[in-house]
Amino acid sequence: MHRPAAPRPSILLPLATVLMALGVLLIAPPAWADKPARPTTRPVDRHFIRKVDQSTVAKDKNTVIESRVDVSRDVKEINDGKAKKGSESGTMTWSINGRTYGAHDNGTLFPIRGSGLHELNRSAFKALGVYNKFKDTPRAREILDKMGISPGDRQAALKAHKAG
Known about the structure:
By secondary structure, the protein is an alpha+beta fold. The chain has one domain (45-163). It has helices spanning 12-27, 71-79, 122-134, 138-147, 151-163; strands at residues 61-65, 84-88, 91-96, 99-103, 109-114, 117-121. The strands form two sheets. The chain has a four-stranded antiparallel β-sheet with strand order 2-3-4-5, covered by helices on one side.
């Protein structure tokens, strides 16, 4: 007596399902990515190394950006939902391309830390303004002496100035 052969399971349906799922994973942004509620905008000029001068407002903590950093790309990728959203001390943060930015309530970004960013205290930030105007010259050293800027703060400012 001959038994009918059992139907062979088709591999096509599971294969198609797997390929479709992979396609969605490759195209879709990562699950942790999130678009900002309102579009973000680039940091203000005081955060760009070459824009700092002696009249720039210095805060207790100041992070400045090297000119080599593609800030426009970072902003676009944050707005496209490609950055990792976080929070530090009640401030919304966005991490992208090795850098972390905070966002003010109006959507303006400010640099916090990362590649191409320099964290300066108030004194080092003021010294940066002097170096940007006078370079590393005897005149700059004379001004920094009168301002009472410590060697460590001078070194941090000069490092940022040279990285420009």
